Amino acid sequence: MPRGRFLSLEGGEGAGKSTQARALAAALRQRGVDAVVTREPGGSPGAEAIRALLLEGEPGRWSARAETLLFAAARADHVEKVIRPALDAGRWVICDRFVDSTRAYQGVAGGIDDADVLALHAFGSEGLLPDRTFLLTLPLALGAERAARRDRGESDRFAARGSDFHAAVATAFERFGAAESERFRSIDASQPPEAVTAAILAELADLVP
Ligand code: T5A
Q1: CA of 1 to the centre of ligand 1 (A)
Q2: Ligand 1 mean position to 12 CA, how many Å?
Q3: The domain 6-202 belongs to what CATH superfamily?
């Protein structure tokens, strides 16, 4: 049984990652690929319990170090219980955020060294990386507007952070994309949803059977 492919979607708030994860899975299934959609933080029962700790409460509830450890612990459970078994069974996994979110939010924007984030990932998740990562890009204001419309004004601990924080996250993602161009593909997410899905599929043409 050939191993499945592991795809991640990354980007700032409201970029359309969840929308595209669903659309991509549907498009891949039409092409005969057995695709499963999952998300972070969360994706397994243990990681979903940690998700509630991470997203609820005051913005300053956790220190940057504690927060980084919680994300790494959630990911370790998610990888062990859901992602690796699916890949080993030949299924494709589409993950709405993965380790690059920790590198951008807790790392670059939160002040934790990238080397420390990657060391935790090496220990917790045996360094598993996606075969391809789609970075959905759009102006910060447009993403914030989309997320606010969807959430009707309610925001979690991360969305509540200031525009400087979100700008640092966006810059970090751009930097990762430039440094790891083998794995990353940048996608213009300001287009209509169907055009974004088509752009992602075009960047997957070499992997789809
Ligand atoms: N986090 C996460 C960390 O700090 N470190 C980590 O390691 C990880 C994994 C997670 C938070 O945790 C942080 C990052 C996040 O702040 P979450 O609730 O899971 O929070 O939500 P996010 O992943 O942040 O999801 P977003 O709020 O950013 O939204 P999406 O998934 O990017 O966007 P989506 O698909 O929900 O779309 C938003 C709205 O826009 C519409 C949709 O219908 C929806 O209403 N839309 C479009 N409208 C017009 N044109 C398009 N192309 C559209 N695409 C979607």
Answers
A1: 33
A2: 7
A3: P-loop containing nucleotide triphosphate hydrolases (3.40.50.300)
